[in-house]
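Figure caption, in words: inputs first, then the predicted bound structure.
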Amino acid sequence: MSRVGIIGIGHGVFGRRSDATVQELAFEAFRDALEDAGIARDDIDASVIGSVPEYHKQRSLPGVVQEYLGVNPKPTWLTEVACASGSAAIRTAWMAIKAGVHEVVAVIGCQKMTELSTPEILGLMGRVGEVQWESVFGTTFPAYYALFARRHMHEFGTTRDQLLQVAVKNHHYGAMNPCALFRKEITLEKAKESEEVATPFQVYDCCANADGAACVILASEGAAREIAKKPVWLDGMGCATASMSVLRRPNLVGLPSAVEAARVAYEMAEVGPEDVKVADVHDCFTVAEILAYEDLGFCKKGEGGRFIADRQSYIGGKVAVNVDGGLKAKGHPIGATGVSMTVEIVKQLRGEAGERQVSDADVGLTHNVGGIGQYCFVQVLRRD
Amino acid sequence: MFKWFGKVNFSPYTKVAGFAQELRDGRLMASRCKACGATSFPPRADCAECLSGDFEFLEISGKATLHTFTKIVAAPTGFEDLAPYTVGVADLAETGRLLAWIGDTIAEDEIQIGMDLQVVPRIFEELEEIKVYYTLEKPGTAWTKTKSSA
Ligand SMILES: [Zn+2]
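Bound structure (zinc ion present):
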């Protein structure tokens, strides 16, 4: 089976970007990715946009982005699966190349969120829960993950300190990432003093809404070998779903979609969790990273709290997780997040991650969750 | 009249609209598939097991245990005036789970995963508006049940 390679990456600065429209953000990442790939705009056969439309005033985003990038009349389309929209865009580009329809495809994850107020965003995001039976009680996105956190603490003895140690780690690495929203270390004590959001969560358990864009350029194996000096291969592409309603899940201590997506991705890439050296996982809330350690098989179910407490997810531990700062420190422009994860893993596999480089990184993984695990995409990436 | 259900209702039209009428009369209803007997809470019109669209409501006791909970401090648009409020996910004795506010009969420091609960139908009538919902309360909490309107 022929492979699909990543030949170019671009990543704008995440944060409150009141200086730019969403297409201007997309342009920054796209221009960087073209330059990184060393190709011309005309070499792009199609673009795929990963974004969540509700947050924008502009309707039908691909049109305005495609025009601003100057890629007309080439085809474009949008993918939307909540916070996993970016990875869904990569998946459809990968599918188009695998099918032989296109040879070189640009994937742009982009999102402007900060034009809306926090309560408006809480309302919109809360409705990624089921609206008929759950949203009527004023559920929010942090509240859903808080329900998982409380249950995980109850069943496995996971502690508040362990949850917040995830935030401490991710801020530690975020401080080294010039594209991150927060570039400051935090202490456990400071995290514990922050305001309550949805118990047990405080502000430092939650990622921040942000604006931003990231871009990857994918190519067929033949084109990738011709163009790229250091192609990175998308060798495992897992994707799975779980019920919209958390009331219909088998349990509230894991995401079955993540377990299944990981199984598919590992099998396709013919690797196991023990082979992964570096991973970007979906830490929208501290507990989500702990669930990811377990669902991806980095440790057993229930042992995620101890995994962070033992610093197994730091560089030098069992597997370096979110050493770009994760959603927690980078910020979470929802459509851009999945693409941002892939950009980081490509940097790591090329050996270009600077002071946060994981040594001997040959196999990397991304884990991008949509909503409260209704959707999950897992990629296994490999260098030559 | 499913638009009655909830403080802010996002889905006024549904095949299980009768649920809200029953709740106003004090009855908590699950659904049962007439073809295969599969039950569901929240109720659903189309059977997840056998795909039949032939269903009936089945009254359940509302006896439940607390699966997990959270106190929401940062509230979304439309719920700011209630904050902070605590929502719980409860495992129902007969079938399924529900999510609801933890009500006045339970103090904050009494809330514990695994505790026994009673789901209590609530009506809220103001001017020309009626709202129905349910809360999670201490076992033994009483409420008014009117005669079946059917
Ligand atoms: Zn049936």
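The interface with chain A takes residues 5-11, 14, 42, 67-80, 82, 84-85, 87, 89, 96-101, 113-114, 133 of chain B (CB under 8 Å).
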